[in-house]
Amino acid sequence: MTLLQRLENSRNALGLLFLLPAAALLLFFLTYPLGLGIWLGFTDTKVGRAGVWVGLENYEYLFGDSVARLSLFNTVFYTAVASVVKFVLGLWLALLLNKHMPFKAFIRAIVLLPFIVPTALSAIAFWWIYDAQFSVISWTLMKMGLIDRYIDFLGDPWNARFSVIAANVWRGVPFVAICLLAGLQTISPSYYEAASLDGATPWQQFRFVTLPLLTPIIAVVMTFSVLFTFTDFQLIYVLTRGGPLNATHLMATLSFQRAIPGGSLGEGAALAVAMVPFLLAAILFSYFGLQRRAWQQGGKD
Amino acid sequence: MSQQAGAEQPADTQGMNYLVSSQRKLATLYLPLAAFLFVLLFPFYWMSVTTFKPNEELLSREGNPFWVTNPTLAHIKKLLFDTAYPEWLWNTILISVTATFLSLLCSVLAAYAIERLRFHGSRYVGVSIFLAYLVPPSILFIPLARVVFELGLFDTRLALILTYPTFLIPFCTWLLMGYFRSIPFELEECALIDGATRWQILSKIILPLAVPGLISAGIFAFTLSWNEFIYALTFISSSESKTVPVGVVTELVEGDVYHWGSLMAGALLGSLPVAILYSFFVEHYVSGMTGAVKE
Predict the structure, then answer these.
(1) Measured between CA atoms, how close is B232 to chain A, in angstroms?
(2) Which of A182, A234, B122, B132 could form a disulfide with B170 if both were Cys (CB 3.0 to 4.6 A apart)?
(3) Distance from CA of B39 to the nearest CA of A (A)
């Protein structure tokens, strides 16, 4: 047997060979930077200057920094409100799309459009919709006589927070809805027939048939949704750049601002690393969601 | 129980829906759905209307803002001839296509190795690929900027072509693993008995059967790279190397005067290619998206 033939027959050698391109790219551009980021968080590296080890100094500084604490509050608030709204509206939309109607396939296809187009570009459309002087929402509300002057959507801290949350929800609802719809389609109509023969109301059917069968996929979809929302960057960067008065700064946008225009790579990296515990919590949540599905289906793995 | 239910499903997919009256259907189905569609599609309508509005109409509070009275192509003309927009478009296409093909190539090999060669430790590699998918770009971009800089790739398109696979490969590999799993082992065993090498099995049996999966992964990867923002914003500084999303956001905004017409034209033209591509492969895109979540 030649070396080549032996290689072709060895699962281990061939497996490693096939894995090599993906592993090389991921190790060099994902695993290494991940470690480098954690290390940078413990140094005072600036752009163009190698830093020295400063221990927990960055974290101590950030803990005492009111802007960094505000950004943590903003991130948690943004994620919590946006995720709950996305879940409720997404589930509702999924239930609507699961019904029989004309042009079903077409409607399902266009619903996903907000998720398809680049977020940075749709955020620009929202920027224009939220414009302080020419907002179309303000125009409509004025004509309806509901308000007497134009709303300053992005200029007031709380208005700005809710405006960016609305834009995030707009982008995230289609994703949640289409994923939950895929879950709904796997539920057999026989269950609903059996339930209605037993006299269950539509609400009871939803509560005791749909929801329990959908729980595993809800857990996964919402974990992804929380993950993307928590680390969101584009929407804030385009709409407000963190303003007004840092009211919409998320941890991701603040870490960009400190690290790239500000030049403090160490501080920015520390802020980014500070997001990791929250992300881990979200992943563990998903893991237990999946475990529950395996248990429900009688699997052991 | 569930098998029985599954067998009856094709005969009666509507269940007892015929019992629902049409008035009730209007209130519980059509009205809410119309409201959803209006909100979800309005920004696109607004983008398109603004693109064709002359500046006088844009900056006036009189008249009906929902319609254009004197449509103009001036904003599109300005965008295509007075800005670097065509270059950004070309960069975006080049980077997205190259990164997608590079990622697909790596992912096919990796997914086949993990799912079918089942080498020692392949399970752990599979799990770590999934974990890699969960690492968000917003915690990676600072150290990656340093890596890119030290490689001398800063401000080049190659920087993006090499870094986009960090989120594309985990996604594509995970998706393709699912597709490969659904292909029967027997096909491969027959080929092995007939003396086919692993490479022949992969290229002549597995890949033709996994074409829908490849399209799903490819379409999804393409849109992900087209939409990527934070890496392109961080690693590229000169105007002629920018991608469309970053170019529109950073270059078209000059001081306090916002050229809404050309901004919206830029957003519209940058969204159209992905929207058109998506319209051709809706089913593949949706199965890619839901497949990655369901696995």
Answers:
(1) 11
(2) B132
(3) 8
